[in-house]
Amino acid sequence: MDMVLYLKNLDCPHCAEKIRTAAEKVPFVKEADMNFMAKKLSLTVAAESGEAVLKEVTKIVSDMEPDVEVQLLKSSAAAAESEDEDSGDLKLDMIKIIVSAAVFAAGFFFRDTRYGLWIFLAAYMISGLEVLITAAKNIAKFRPFDECFLMTIATLGAFCIGEYPEGAAVMILYQIGELFQSYAVRRSRKSIASLMDIRPDTANVKRGDAVEEVPPETVEKGDIIVVKAGEKIPLDGIIVNGSTTLDTSALTGESVPREASAGSEAMSGCVNLTGVIEIEVTKEFGESTVSKILEMVENASAKKARSEQFITRFAKVYTPCVVIAAVLLAIIPIIAGGYDSRHIYNALSFLVVSCPCALVISVPLSFFGGIGGASARGILIKGGVTMEQLAECGTVIFDKTGTLTDGSFEITKLIPNNQSEERLLELAAIAEQGSNHPAALAVMRKFNGVPPKAEITEIAGRGVKAVNGGQTVLAGNIRLMEENGVSGLPEIRSAGTLIFVAENGVFAGAVEIADRIKPDSVKAVSELKKAGIKTVMLTGDRREAADIIGEKLGLDEWRSELLPDGKVAAMEKIMEENPRGKTVFVGDGINDAPVLMRADAGVAMGGIGSDAAIEAADAVLMTDEPSKLLEAIRFSKKTRGIVIQNIVFSLAVKGAVLILAAFSIATMWAAVFADVGVCFIAIINAVRARRCN
């Protein structure tokens, strides 16, 4: 069975990883997964052991982080309520830091008096008492290597060798860094929560002549819901009564509202701006667009990127190694040349530098910022690992229908033979008037009238035959014409499907029906090629149609007449031929799910994309614009760049200060900058990821 725990007040990513590791070792726990940004610990446990596991994990969390409260989540609504945090804790911490800093400043006026030690010690205790208590508890439980232990040893050591200002200052600045870290994490969480504030609270279900307000989770498919002006649409469905204007910005990032009336699709999460509408529900709440989006955003940080995994492993090794180095730095010189407080001072500086906070918080914060910024533009990216794959993109493979083209048929050309276009269209309408085939519907939309009635016979795999008195009309493929002795058939090169039309055995012309190229597709392919990315199209359509589409768009290559398994094989061959860079596949249909999953990164067209495609994809373009892919790639590259900047900057500064401290060149103030200062800079840099251009 699966259980999800919400860890309220959890703002330390390093602590989150320690909690996950400890929880995974609990008896009956098969797997533990920590989503730090959502503050959720997901556990897979043996049946009938949930209560025992919950009790043990709660004890682990209480021991490691006494301020963190464990809550068992039973529904998405409960999660939403739990995420509504009180900012009182942050305010209290801020007050303590301000008071401590004021006392610390006063200490300099009495530094050379007998009161100096006590004033600095008071400033130290006001800001650092909780740190001392936590460190003592962890030492008692044989878990010493954490930030509280390092700060306690370093600062108390400074007091012991008479460096009172340094000891108090290190603790105050450490707490300022912790406060800033908590603020940055909570602000990032709140920005995502407000961005995705599309969760409906209730649904108004029509029951006979009455309207009943119920939770959206209780509404079933086929129910009729009423949505008034200004309300969010709670479930996916089809408008059956009324017309309105819909604000889709929360889903697509597009600010321009769209008109909707009876027969139009209405997606959950959109806002009804004008009239009252009635919607027939087509999906239950758990399968609706709003639920899928919320799930993707909430779980985005659960898929850790390689750089996040590296930092997690690095922090486990880095801190113990630096602590051991600090001990050796203090002991070896004393053994060799006698006691000197300078060696203790250098070792204490080592301990201050050893905190990995800047790395541990800035890397996941960078990815979450990039994911949030992309979401605001209608691009849903399922995790940091996907951002890394998109950032390394070398080849983009597109599906054709619904991705590069609109996915709806229309007449693109009338090719008459010895008669007018109007007459050719009328003959086609006579034959196609009783069919529901997409090509026939396109003909009837174009004719926009009522053709003469005829006796219609469908010929499987060929087309139709219509008889109206002494008139016989054939409409279908070229084989239908040949089998009925129609002569003089021309060779016509077409990007779409050709309907050949004959009247009384004489060729009357052809109607070209095609799927239109999206205007945005030309821009997408052009910009991808400018960025040095190879563009390929894989389609199940005819070779002639694929050739014309490929040439019009300027694709590097294309392959046609492929079944779903053929697309997978073709993509694998392309990946072998282009080993440099990652391969991204963009598709929209249910038949694209296998190839979406096989690609390094699969991208689904969300607006009209099938549920299977969206589920299988690593990212979703909610506007159905292929050019959004380039924006997703740019976001990913910028975010990865920020991550690399933070890693390199943090390691470089810490490494330099460690070396200087070892040779008594760097003071504890420099060590404070290498810890708290670097953390400040890294977090500020990470927040920039939300504003990638």
What is this structure's SSE topology?
Blueprint lengths: L1 E7 L4 H12 L4 E7 L4 E6 L4 H15 L4 E5 L2 H7 L5 H20 L8 H25 L6 H14 L3 H32 L7 E5 L2 E5 L9 E4 L9 E5 L2 E4 L1 H4 L5 E3 L4 E2 L4 E2 L4 E5 L7 H10 L7 H32 L3 H13 L3 H19 L3 E3 L2 H8 L1 E6 L6 E12 L4 H12 L5 H10 L7 E5 L3 E6 L2 E6 L1 H6 L13 E7 L2 E12 L1 H12 L3 E5 L4 H11 L3 E3 L4 H14 L4 E6 L5 H6 L2 E5 L5 H6 L2 E3 L6 H35 L5 H20 L6
Parallel strand pairs: 15-22, 15-24, 22-23, 24-25, 25-26
Antiparallel strand pairs: 1-3, 1-4, 2-3, 5-6, 7-13, 8-11, 8-13, 9-10, 9-12, 14-26, 16-21, 17-18, 18-19, 19-20, 20-21
Helix pairs in contact: 1-2, 4-5, 4-7, 5-6, 5-7, 6-7, 6-11, 7-12, 7-23, 10-11, 10-12, 11-22, 11-23, 12-22, 12-23, 13-22, 14-15, 22-23
Structure summarized in a few sentences:
The protein has 693 residues and is an alpha+beta fold. Helix content is 49%, strand content 20%.
